[in-house]
Amino acid sequence: MIALLPGFLTGLSLIIAIGAQNAFVIKQGLLRQHVLLIVLICAISDAVLIFLGTGGLGALVQSNQGLLEVIRWFGVAYLTWFGIKSVKSAFTNQSLEASESPTVSALKVATTALALTWLNPHVYLDTVILLGSVANQFDSDRWYFAIGASVASVLWFTVIGFGARAASKYMSRPIFWKILDSLIAVVMFSIAITLAFFNF
């Protein structure tokens, strides 16, 4: 428990911040499309990154600036594209009620969730390097820290994904979806700009 609880709290504090992953999970939850698949992909991806960081991948990532640069510019391009797509959605869709929205294939949703997770350098900085560094302060108990952080990730994505799904019937007005798409666009553009100018 000495390492498990700090791991849980540290993981939760890092993941709660609104980012590309969270925005996508919330929107798909509100659309009630492939929610379980998205929650599983995001939670498992985070857990893998947390355990890799605990195992020492953070030091390798920090020493390989070329790899971070490649991930950075892929991330900038993808997030910018996603932001533009959200802007178009906000201004062109006539009705975006969850029950009437076109169903997106599971493959496309999975690909988007994976891209928003693995093409974002901030994920590596927060999850692999930062969490990995803190975890290793616990020496032989570091794996318990990693378990705690992973549990926090599973809990968070489950809550926002299925919470949004449960709330979707109260948010069916088109204006709500236009505002949501606009906010998602702001999040994506903000992260893309940060990635472009952040000094890794």
From TrEMBL:
<keyword id="KW-1133">Transmembrane helix</keyword>
<feature type="transmembrane region" description="Helical">
    <location>
        <begin position="175"/>
        <end position="198"/>
    </location>
</feature>
<dbReference type="GO" id="GO:0015171">
    <property type="term" value="F:amino acid transmembrane transporter activity"/>
</dbReference>
<keyword id="KW-0472">Membrane</keyword>
<dbReference type="GO" id="GO:0005886">
    <property type="term" value="C:plasma membrane"/>
</dbReference>
<keyword id="KW-0812">Transmembrane</keyword>
<feature type="transmembrane region" description="Helical">
    <location>
        <begin position="143"/>
        <end position="163"/>
    </location>
</feature>
<protein>
    <submittedName>
        <fullName>L-lysine exporter family protein LysE/ArgO</fullName>
    </submittedName>
</protein>
<dbReference type="InterPro" id="IPR001123">
    <property type="entry name" value="LeuE-type"/>
</dbReference>
<dbReference type="Pfam" id="PF01810">
    <property type="entry name" value="LysE"/>
</dbReference>
<keyword id="KW-1003">Cell membrane</keyword>
<feature type="transmembrane region" description="Helical">
    <location>
        <begin position="35"/>
        <end position="60"/>
    </location>
</feature>
